[in-house]
Amino acid sequence: MDYRSQENTRTERRIVQALDGKTLSPPPVWMMRQAGRYLAEYKATRAEAGSFLDLCYNPELACEVTLQPIRRYGFDAAILFSDILVVPDALGQPVRFEEGIGPILEPIGLDAAAKLDPSVVTEKLAPVLDAVGLIRASLPSETTLLGFCGAPWTVATYMVAGRGSSDQAPTRRVAFSDSAGFDRLIDRLVEASIRYLVAQFERGADAVQVFDSWAGALDEEGFERWAVDPMRRIVAGVRAEIPGARIIGFPKGVGMFLERYVDATGVNAVGLDWSVPLDFAKRLQKTCAVQGNLDPMRLVAGGEALKSGVRRVVDALGSGPFIFNLGHGVTPDTPVENVAEMVALVRGETV
Ligand SMILES: Cc1c2[nH]c(c1CCC(=O)O)Cc1[nH]c(c(CCC(=O)O)c1C)Cc1[nH]c(c(CCC(=O)O)c1C)Cc1[nH]c(c(C)c1CCC(=O)O)C2
User: Which atom of ligand 1 is nearest to the CA of 80?
Assistant: First the structure.
């Protein structure tokens, strides 16, 4: 296939069109964490792989679990199966995932963080990049392939605290006690993210999403310094290598700061959590596409809560550039039939 015909196939992908600012009816749809424990076939492959990281670093099995939700539901996008914490793992801060707890790392100090070498990530993450190539080769041509990484602030919260936290107090304390030292950690993660995302584009990703799941823990100044500015540098750095690279930002829980985020970073689309009022979301559509924002618990509950929730989001946002998604990841207790119903409702099909 020559470059031009490949370009034509790509631009037909519906999520790519939405990222380019087009209004589509019905809107394209995918779900964060769409490959995961709510699917029996995921649990089977996961058991075969061994640990969660063994699955992430096995290109064939990572490809298999990426495709599982596409086979079942025909989502408009597949998202690479991996985790945001493979980056610290690659940088030399080993990560393990403990059942019922989540990720565990040996907390890193800011002196050690300043010595991290971001140039090792693409080599260390070769199996993940191999998975990107395998997935692209196996996907239907109309399906968009999304790569991703964690935003520097969110990845730093796990590196500094050594595990998840609900308010990020340990990392906020460190960031405000030694802001210059914390900047150096963020700088290393900006560089690692640029290299890693560029490599994902080179292996066939159509677009990438940057997850800033804990951005809502920052105050206005902190948000500007450790969320907005790093993201602006990532967008510019990736586009310097991949001109026109399409990028989705997902700063969760930041409310009114979303406006500043989209203006300053130049993202093609912004992900919205379910707390974002839809009238406010419509205003953002003047600057970029929006993605979201059904409460995942409406999907768990099903019935009228699901129907009215989908209708409300599609009615409000469907008249501008829009990608239907949840406001955060799908949870393991989600009934599979509710996901089928959600997709049908978004597509205006009767169930
Ligand atoms: C903060 C964060 C992490 N990982 C991620 C984020 C940002 C998005 C968000 O806020 O949810 C991102 C992520 N994690 C995973 C993906 C795969 C792609 C997808 O389907 O969206 C993506 C995009 C797989 C995963 N990542 C994880 C699982 C579950 C592990 C398992 O199968 O045992 C999956 C499918 C583990 C994980 N990984 C992480 C935590 C806190 C946990 C434990 C919590 C949990 O178990 O759900 C870190």
Answer: 18
